[in-house]
Amino acid sequence: MIYSQGIGTAKDPVRATFWFELAGQDGSVEDKYTLGVMYSKGEPLEKNDVKARQWFERAANEGHVLAQYNLAVMYSEGLGGDRDLQKARHWADKAAGQGDPEATRLLSVLNERGKQSPFEILMVAGGGPCCRAAYCATGSAGCRSWG
C-alpha cells in the first residue's frame, strides 16, 4: 500500500504491482481475491482484465465465493479472455451453492433456457428461499409470504 498510495514516498505503480503480486503468490485466498479486485477496478493497480481473471480463478479454486461470482461474470461477459458460458455457469453454480444471491441470479439468467426454472435455481441456493436472493432475482423484496 505504501507504493500504491504514496505513503512516505512517491507513488510507484510498478513497485506496488510487484509487491502486491509477490504477496498474492504465497498469500491467503483473500490476498488473491483482493488482487483480482484491484486489477478489475484499476485501483490502485492499472486495470487489467486478463490478470483480474487469473487472480479470481486462483481464489475461486480455493473456494472464495466472491471470486467465484466475479469469475462467472467475467466468463459470461468475455472479460479478460474468451466468453465461455459453460465456465460461467460452473462458477456461478459454485458461488450459488455457497448461498451467494447475486450468483443465484446470474445462474438463473445463464440457465433461463435450460431445464431448471429461475425459481428452482433460487431454491437450490442455500437450500430454500432467501430474501436477499429473491430481491436479486426479482428486483423486489417480496419476502413476506416466506415468513
Automatic annotation (TrEMBL):
Pfam family membership, one: Sel1
Record-linked InterPro entries: Mitotic_Regulator, Sel1-like, TPR-like_helical_dom_sf
Name of the protein in question: Polar organelle development protein
Primary gene name: podJ
